[in-house]
Each structure stands twice: as C-alpha cells, then as structure tokens.
Design a protein that fits this description.
Blueprint (H helix, E strand, L loop, with lengths): L1 H19 L4 H21 L22 H32 L13
Length: 112
C-alpha cells in the first residue's frame, strides 16, 4: 500500500513539474494544481497510513492513534489551493483578453 501511495505521489509531482515547464499559462496552472495535490498527499501520508486505528486516544493506548494534525493541514491546504486556482484562472482569462494569447511570456511562436 505504501509503495503504491509513494508511486502516486511521485507521478503526480513529476507530471506537475513537467506541466510547470510548458509554455502555456493553462498548463502551468494545472501543473501547480497537480504539484499542490502531490504535496497534500505527502502530508496526509505522514500521518501514518493505517486502517482500523481509532482516532481518539484512550488511556493506555497512546501509541495507537491517528494523528489529526496532517488531516487538518491537508483540509486547509485544499481550501486555499482551490481559492488560489480560481484566482489564477481569472488572471489567465484577463491576460488572454488583454494580450490575445495564453503563452507564458505573451509572445506567440509558430512552433507547437
């Protein structure tokens, strides 16, 4: 389970970095989103991936509990990431309307 989870994080982070290096603004925004999701999964995974572990500490079982801090951090990061993505999309639409292209540097080339 941990190997599959690690591979999923690695693939998402690799795809995010690849898209960050693309010349189009929309691809850069999607790359930022994928990278953010990979970081969220990484933080969530640091809270131990175990099934059947109680979320509440009972006396005498302090070693077997689910840590709520990574879950709270990921939930907050999801909300902030969604707001940031929405802002980036509005800026993308405004920049495309002003410049007529969605190229990162504003210059359209003949190469695709």
């Amino acid at each position: 389970m941990a190997l599959i989870f690690s591979l999923a994080i690695g693939i998402m982070a690799g795809a995010g970095i690849y898209l960050l290096l693309r010349p189009r603004t929309f691809q850069v925004i999607i790359g930022l989103s994928l990278l953010g999701y990979a970081v969220n999964l990484f933080i969530f995974g640091m809270g131990r991936l175990q099934a059947g572990v109680p979320p509440i500490i009972t006396p005498g079982s302090a070693a077997q509990y689910a840590d709520p801090v990574p879950q709270a951090l990921v939930l907050t990061a999801i909300v902030i990431g969604f707001a940031t993505l929405s802002l980036f999309l509005v800026v993308l639409l405004a920049a495309r309307g002003l410049s007529g292209t969605d190229h990162v540097d504003g210059k359209e080339t003949d190469e695709n």
